[in-house]
Amino acid sequence: MAKTNPGVDAYIANSADFARPILNHLRELVHEACPEVEETLKWRMPHFLHKGILFGIAAFKHHCMLHFWKGNLILGNKFRKAHEGGTWQFDRRITALSDLPGDRILLGYMKKAVELNESGIKKEAPKRKASKELVVPDYFVAVLRKNPKARQAFEKFSYSHKKEYVQWITEAKREETRQKRMQTAIEWLAEGKPRNWKYQT
């Protein structure tokens, strides 16, 4: 008998009427494809595990989603990337059982997911976007050089923290405002504070 998770039972029971048959069908298929499969809730959605994540399912207001953890290795261009994390999902919204491929095809995908996990094949890491070079205006560089502590703190900051300071200073419309902002920036930097430190808890 398939080992089920009460949390997944509750998730499906609380889903919309159209979604329950879809979710139940996918759940039954994965237990057929891999009798040792484990059920769990991750990111508040049902996921199926066997030596790692196989895939997850979710129900929304008007559609369901099926996303494979190593989808690029299983599905190729039949699916599209869902987000930077690298999981892949159908390129169409699932609103009825007829939107799914046939059982034989789905079982094949699920068995491939099991095979990849059993072989220890890792999911491809998402490609990092090359960070843009931040242009720090000469007048701010000159002020930073006069305060080694502030300069050191600025250099250690992440790209986004540096950008916040640079934008704040360069967006000043009047020279007087810019000078005031630079003076404040140097004081905060000397204390190791990011630009928006007041809003941090």
General shape: elongated
Please, how many domains? 2
Strand order of the biggest β-sheet: 1-2-3-4-6-5
Strand fraction band? 5-15%
**Could you say what the CATH topology of the largest domain is called?**
Aspartate Aminotransferase, domain 1
Structural class of the secondary structure composition?
A: alpha+beta
Q: What's the tally of helices? A: 8
Query: Measured on Cα atoms, how large is the radius of gyration?
Result: 26 Å
Taking the alpha carbons of the first and last residues, their distance comes to 50 Å
Give the averaged pLDDT, no decimals.
Answer: 86
Please describe what this structure looks like.
With 201 residues, this protein is an alpha+beta fold. The chain has 2 domains: 6-118, Aspartate Aminotransferase, domain 1 (Alpha-Beta Complex), CATH 3.90.1150.200; 138-196, no CATH class. 44% of the residues lie in helices and 14% in strands. The protein contains 8 helices and 6 strands; from the N terminus they run ααββββαββααααα. A 6-stranded antiparallel beta sheet has the order 1-2-3-4-6-5. Helix 2 crosses helix 4 and helix 7 (159-170) runs antiparallel to helix 8 (175-190). Residues 80-88 have low confidence and may be disordered.
